[in-house]
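Please go through the protein record below and explain what the tokens say about the fold. Record follows.
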Amino acid sequence: MAVLVQRFPPVPQVEEDLRTLVEGDPGLTLTASIQYLSGLEVRYDPSSDGPGQRLLAWVVAASSGTNLWIRGVLSTYRIGDQVPITRFGGVTDDSEAGTIEIVYDVEACGGQGYWVMDVAGSRVSLPGWLLLAHELTHAWHVLAGTRMQPLALEELIAGADENWVRSGRGLPLRSSRDRRGGTIGSC
């Protein structure tokens, strides 16, 4: 089993977000495979160290018994044909046995972007690569058997994990008290 990027547009943006997460580490490869015809397999042998590198290395290593699909979608995508992806930015679903699916908006609300609250009470950007990192932390907790319920508690933990990645880049930390977030413009 493996971490896979679904093979339809916009794969280049997913790959770019993964590369940004690992700060351009050349140990990241996306490889076509006969075993996974509809996806590109993510392989990662880190040659540098940091929170983003560790997160991806852990997820790739832990996925040995599960297929983890990463699916970049356009801002017009609807979750279950009902809820706009722009309501959340991204979701992680583990309802199908042996499969985890991350779906996230690679267009960033049609180019407008997403925001979250920081610890100072200001709106700060949530770029696509960091949105993917947030969803990868959800996947990590599923793979490690540490996913929490209710959803509010799980989001708090994913936010703390996101802050670990943010701190490694010198970015403002996301608030654990004020969980508001949204789109910068209307999309």
Notes: The chain has a mean pLDDT of 90.
